[in-house]
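User: I'm putting together notes for a lab meeting next week and I want to include a structural view of one of the chains we've been expressing. I don't have a solved structure, so I'd like a prediction I can at least talk through. The sequence is below, exactly as it appears in our construct file.
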Amino acid sequence: MRVLIAFDKFKDALSARDACRVAAEALAESKPDWEIEAAPLADGGDGFCDTLTGTINGEFHSAQVTGPMGEKVTARFGIVSKICLQESAQTLLGFQESTRDIAIIEMAECSGIALTPIRGRSPWTTTTAGLGELINAAIQHGAQGAIIGLGGSATHDLALGALERLGVSFLDKNGDPISGSPIPDTWSKIYRIDVSKFTLPANFEIRLACDVENPLLGSSGAAAVFGPQKGLTPERFEEIESLTRKMAHCLCEARSIEPATMTNPGTGAAGGAAFGLQTGLGATIVSGYELVKAWIGLEPKFERAQCVITGEGRFDASSLQGKGPGALALETAETDKRLLVLAGSLGEIKNAPFRPNCLVAISPPEMPLENALKATSENLAQALRTAFE
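Assistant: Thanks for the context. Below is the predicted structure for the 389-residue chain, given as structure tokens.
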């Protein structure tokens, strides 16, 4: 049997690489004659840096940066050599020929929602300043371009905090600079954006890994869809929507870009960070899942496999909306390959084209979450042994 093991992270328990390792070791022990290949998955959120940097033996670095609530946090980033990438990944990214070393930056590391207390979350006071500082740190370590994973953000500041750390100024009606990070609470004071003093190297290119297709504004925009989980209350939606539109127009005017770009798919990702980084820095959005597929060489591994084992911490209907394990499971279901999806817990999935018993929750239903998280490795290994008895 030729088996492909391709897990995403089990949040708060196992990274994607560790989940693949645990599963491969358990399967090799019980089925020593099987051929096993591993391919850790990731989207643009938690685990993005670990997966992309670790799978090609890149260098990990860390820096002290500003967290989403203004506190100092230690954020990790990677540096990889472009020549080590799969040809398909190089083609997808399209970095210029002179780019050699690329930074792998995960927004969740510096501006992530996991860094904020549940009861203290607010889109009005959180900042992406740390993202700008992390980009600067990567440049100081020799990066000539960057790939930024946009998932898991705590912010709704259009990445203006990051832009401020990269030399952009925000001016009041008198033309005086407004001090501090440009969080939504201060947007009403801003009348103009000055982009004349960017500190990025001239040829520094940025790619944004993202599978979100939401535009910046409207009923499917950043505030409407993602604002509530970041602490936005219904009575303040129109206020933040109006200010978001104002700041987007200011940034478009500063960069001489048509405001219609804010309707483009994906611009609402990470609290509008995709829009801000696109408009302010000329960044380009790429599909996070397609990038990871190309990066880890998933396609040939998938073609060779007779059995595909995938999963993540929770597998539910949202997993089938562009996430790696869900996309891989759907692709496998269209073939005659055996499919096994292992997850910490399972949610309701209607009308999915999966065969009976291919979806398995590895945590015993009576086990408390705290205990289940601690026992994820053991539960994952046991679920594999049971599935192939």
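A couple of points you could mention at the meeting. The chain has two domains: 2-40+302-387, 48-289. DSSP finds 14 helices and 15 strands in the chain.

User: Perfect, that's what I needed.
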